[in-house]
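In this section we walk through a basic example: taking a raw amino acid sequence and producing a predicted 3D structure, encoded as discrete structure tokens. The instruction is simple. Fold the sequence below.
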Amino acid sequence: MEKDFWLERWEKKETGFHQEDFNPHLQQFWKQLGMPQGCEVFVPLCGKSLDLLWLRDAHHRVLGVEISSLAVQSFFEENGMRPSHGHIGKFEFCEADGIGVLCGDFFDLEEEDLAGVGAVYDRASLIALPAEMRERYAEHLAKILPVGTKVLLIALEYDQGEMSGPPFSVSEEEVEALFGGFAEVKRIASIDALEANPRFRTRGLTRLLENVFLLEVN
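The resulting token sequence is shown next.
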């Protein structure tokens, strides 16, 4: 699954993964990270997520990365913001009202790009990637995140035989295998999510869990 897949999804407006409201798990569990006001929060593969606004309104500086320039443009336009434009490394950088987005490939990020980051919010990044890319994703985070960074990770778990991703099923065991080598991993919640997500039932799922993890890079 290459970047052209996601660019095409945005161009065709096949964005069922986009949520039209703030994520309830973000609202419920973010405080458990204990991040101070003014902390910079990194949101990988951010799309046009409204969660960027929630994090900004929680008095954090927000830094996203997104491959689709259409998604970045839509985010700022739909929220009535007129961003400034510049370049940072290989990325076009758009910024307005405390939210900055690097437009480009996540895997082009370097350690200095995230030097000021204190926390990461991942709702739709890990589960958007097939197994071989999830391993590469975790390895890249290990290279670029500062020691001490805390991560709020939300993953889906279901029988992958009942539905092909994305979003993909990522078990607690896989999360531990991916991140346990460079971070402390703790599951803080497991929620039966099938009733709240009928579109997945229509795709054939009989069971769906949303698992919420707190990670701390060591």
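Looking at the output, two observations stand out. The mean pLDDT is 93. The chain has two domains: 38-122, 126-218. In the next section we compare this with other chains.
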